[in-house]
Every structure is written in structure tokens, then in C-alpha cells.
# Entry
Amino acid sequence: MEKTESADVVIVGAGVIGCSIAYHLAKEGVPVLILERGRVGQEASWASAGILTHGRPASTHPYERLATLSRNLFEPLVKELIELSGVDPEYRPSGGVHIFLDEEGVERAKNYYRGSVMTGLEVEFLEPADLFELEPALNREARAAIRFPGDASIRPPRLVRALSLASQRLGTRILEHSPVVGMEVRSGRVTAILTPEERIQGGSFVLATGAWSGLVGDRVGVDLPVYSSKGEIVLLESLPGKLGQIVNNDGHYLVPRSDGKLLVGATEEAVGFDKTSTVHGVLELLEWAFHVAPGLSDATFVTSWAGLRPAVRRGGPYLGRLKDFQNLYVATAHNSNGMLLSPASGLLMSQLLTNRPTSLTLEPFAAPFEAD
Ligand SMILES: Cc1cc2nc3c(=O)[nH]c(=O)nc-3n(C[C@H](O)[C@H](O)[C@H](O)COP(=O)(O)OP(=O)(O)OC[C@H]3O[C@@H](n4cnc5c(N)ncnc54)[C@H](O)[C@@H]3O)c2cc1C
# Structure
């Protein structure tokens, strides 16, 4: 027989975004229920590299303001989560370098440096000698580098675990293995959301379904133009400290962890919902890694994986109420920066859902329908 559940706010999807919204609502005393198709935090939010870059503090662009707000929320959030959940998300304020290896490298580095200074970022220009003193494992042919001391990383699976445990301590309920398959709507108001076994009633409903948001939208009659962008990652192991900070070059990156593990990421491909780790993906990453950091050639191969980013062709993320519904909200399309943007997304959505003023205007993040 069909069971009935209810909560003030029902969130669909227990990735970093759904869990962050739940956490911020639970802190306000709001009863929340999360419905998760599989298990908590096993999709993009597990596969992620966990780099926390920066917003551009002096920029008025809505995305940069969102990133700056989120970045500033991270450190206090991590402290709170450790206290409440007992799980350490391993926030590591290592800083990050962007290295330039091509002939125009010096010019490109100078331009990047100037642009960064103008937008209020803390940034350093590194001559090759400074770079090699800092990171001896990197390619000696680098022409220049710039360094962002504020860049950091976290361990994504740990962040999601900490958020979900802390939310549950504050009263949130999570139903795993509960895929949402439909929705009941009366006069523009969602009255219940349906899983194969349950009918869930609520005051408000939030779709935080990552790369599956388009599919979930179809199931509930909403056109959300979100597609899946596959990213592959390789995990290596070297001596702890062999690389001190995050290294970026030509769209790829190396993320060192304190235990000597090193993430090499990431590829980018629109190939539907395939999450396999491929030979071409692993090769692309390893070739790039050993070109940029030949000093890591003694590293050992540990494993590889892939995850699906929630991507959109224009704009994103989408944060807000869907315009044809009184109580249906969306928080998705965070693409390559969902970890970075998760604290602000959780805070802003919780402010919206509890009718409080939002710390930033959410208008620029309204979800377009496919026909727009
Ligand atoms: C390889 C890779 C590297 C990345 N690196 C970084 C990085 O360094 N820094 C950064 O900030 N970001 C990074 N990202 C991006 C970041 O991981 C994502 O933007 C973020 O995890 C998205 O979170 P989410 O909660 O929206 O999606 P997800 O974590 O995918 O969660 C969505 C959840 O919804 C559930 N769901 C789907 N359909 C249903 C349904 N019908 N019913 C119930 N539940 C459903 C899914 O099972 C899933 O658990 C990376 C992503 C990848 C793939």
C-alpha cells in the first residue's frame, strides 16, 4: 500500500546542493525531508576534485558575487560541520598556481595577473625561479606562473557526509532509494511528490537533482535545459609534500592531498549518463600531468573514476522558484563549481524558502524554460 510522508520542505536529491540547503534550513528549525534516488552523495558530489577557487571580489557580475560569498562562507562552515557531525571535510588552504608553458606564456601570465588585480583578487606573479623554488616537481620550461594564495581544496565525499549528518542531527530526515517519478499539481501548486512507493506532501518542493534535473523536470512537467557533462579523474600517489599546492594549466589541474595522494583532473565530454573511466580519458590526464610535473614520474597509479556535472549552455546555476509554480523551486546547474558554490546556494535557498531577505538577489539565477 502507498505510504504518505510530509515535511515543510521536501528536497529531491542528496548531493552537496540538496544537503547544503537542508543544513541551512535545519539550522533555522525547518522540518526537511530529502528524497534520494540512490544513496547520499554518491554522484557528482562524490566524484568532484574539491577545488575551492575564488570569486572576484571587486566584480559586480552576479556569478562572481555568488562565488565570493560562497568562498567566504567556507571556513566558518567547515568548523561548524566538524563540531556538529564529527566529520572533517579536510579543508586545505594550500593556494594554487597557474603555470604557463607556451611561448606567449609570459604575456598571458602578465595579462591574467593584471586582470586578477583589477578584480580585487590576492594574486602573485612568479618568475620561473620563484616557481621552481616553491614547486620543484613542475616542468622547468615554464615561462611564468601566477599564484592565488586564497585557493583551497576539500574532500568532497567528506563534505557531503558532514552536511548530511549535521542536517540529520538538527532534525532533517533522508529517504534513500526513493526516486521521484511524478508530482501532483493543483492550480499551480504542487500538492505532493511521488516515488514508486510513497506520496510525499509538503509546503515547498526543491529539485536539487544535479545532472538529472532535465530528466526529473520531464517527469514533473518542467523543461529544465540541464545536461550531463562527464568528467574523468585519475588518482595517483606520491611522497607527501612532493607537490604543495593546486596546479592549473590549460583547463586541467593537479590537487595534492596531505597524505601524498594526487588528483589529476578533469576531462570534459557530453556523452549522456555514461560514468565509465575510459582509456582515452586516463591517457589525456596522465600525459598532461607528466608534461606539467615531470617530477611526479615516480608516482603510482591508484585508481580512476568519472562523474556527471550538471551543465547548461548559458548561465547557471539556477537558484529560485520556478515561475509557473507557487511552491516548486530549483537549485541546480552548478556545472564545474558546485562544491565552491554549495555554501552560498544552501544559504540563499534557505533564505528564500523561509521568506527572509536573500543575501544576494536571485533574479540573475532564474531558471529559463527550454522555450525561452
Ligand atoms: C570530475 C568532476 C570534478 C569536479 N571538480 C570540482 C571542483 O574541483 N570544484 C567544484 O567546486 N566543483 C567541482 N565539480 C562540480 C561539482 O562536483 C558539482 O557541481 C556538484 O557536485 C553538483 O552537486 P549536485 O548536488 O547538484 O549534484 P549531484 O551530486 O549529482 O547530486 C544530485 C543527486 O540527485 C539525485 N537524483 C537524481 N534524480 C533523482 C530522482 N529522480 N529522485 C531522487 N533523487 C534523484 C542523484 O542520485 C544525486 O545524488 C566537479 C565535478 C566533476 C564531475
